[in-house]
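Hello again,

I reread your note about wanting to compare the complex against the isolated chains. To keep things tidy I'm splitting this into two emails, and this first one only covers the full assembly. Below are the input lines as submitted, including protein chains and any nucleic acid or small-molecule components. They are followed by the predicted structure of everything together. The single-chain runs will come separately.
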Amino acid sequence: MSQNGDEAGDDEAALRARLEKLDAALRARDEERRAEDAAAGEPKAGVGRALSVGLNVFSEFVGAVVVGALIGWQADRWFGTTPWLLIAFLGLGVAAGFWNVYRVAAPKPPAAGADGDEGR
Amino acid sequence: MNGEVESKPNPIEQFELHRLFPFEVSGFDASFTNASLFMLLAALGVVLLMVVATSSKAIVPGRMQAVAEMLYEFVANTVRQTAGKEGMKFFPFIFSLFSFILISNLIGLVPYSFSPTAQIVVTFAFAAVVISLVVLYGLYRHGLRFLNLFVPHGVPLPVLVVLVPIEIISFLSRPISLSVRLFANILAGHITLAVFGGFVMLLLSAGAWAVLAPIPILAIVALYALELLVAFLQAFVFSVLTCVYLNDAIHPGH
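Full-complex prediction:
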């Protein structure tokens, strides 16, 4: 019996080793596939990709400018300082727009933030 | 798409709203329009895909079940990679969002149908929900520390005076860029398709030039392939960005 138990322990150890090996292999394959996907995802259809990137950058930039202008315009109406706040916030909006576009275009920021994904 | 160009090609006509059942709630026009109809269809499509496909619960999945499982795993992986393990509590939300946008983009590609995602109201409503969720969850989870999101690390004070408003405007522009991106991509694609369809019409009615009519048709075929890609890609981009923003709410501070 005791011999049997030993065998079972050995079996278990062997099984665990095999499981670990399988797990590692699976993980490696997963990573491989992910890398493949990333590589395949890059150079898709020329015009479509360009259109998509263009619209992406456009929306990032225009969004910020519009928000800045709206804030400035509304603040001007509240404080009666037409047109100074509008001008100031329009400038800030343009800056924020460039900041957005920079974040889209920047080649994978080293900071571990998920912001790098924004340029898709 | 090209079905709408009956007498004179009008590439914008396909986006017009029609009231199917006029209906008013205390002065607000809440009619059931063709946009509502196709959104309902998209929602039903999602439910059907999920319920029917998984009804058999086969271990070796059939075709529909394979589609449903791939969709599930794809979104789950996306959420896990962009928002981390904690982001998984938003998985149901993001999965609904992704599948709904995907299905409505795809339904919109069927000729004579209507694309709800080409309406800025629809996409902006999505973006507003997403951003409200981000802000509310961020405030609930971190209280006022959530506002650290607007203060980048390791920046000297004089620069902060300029940078913080820029960050705030940049944050506020997110719902706009999120909605405009989806809306503009779908809108541009459908207009392009309709314009090429219009070329076919014009060439056919231009006597001898009708010989050239197959060329735009070939272009339409190519564009359709592209639009399928865009339909998928934009749904994906929308959900990835949602995850990225939610990640900001989970871990504010750069």
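For quick reference: The two ends of chain A are 63 Å apart (CA to CA).

B.
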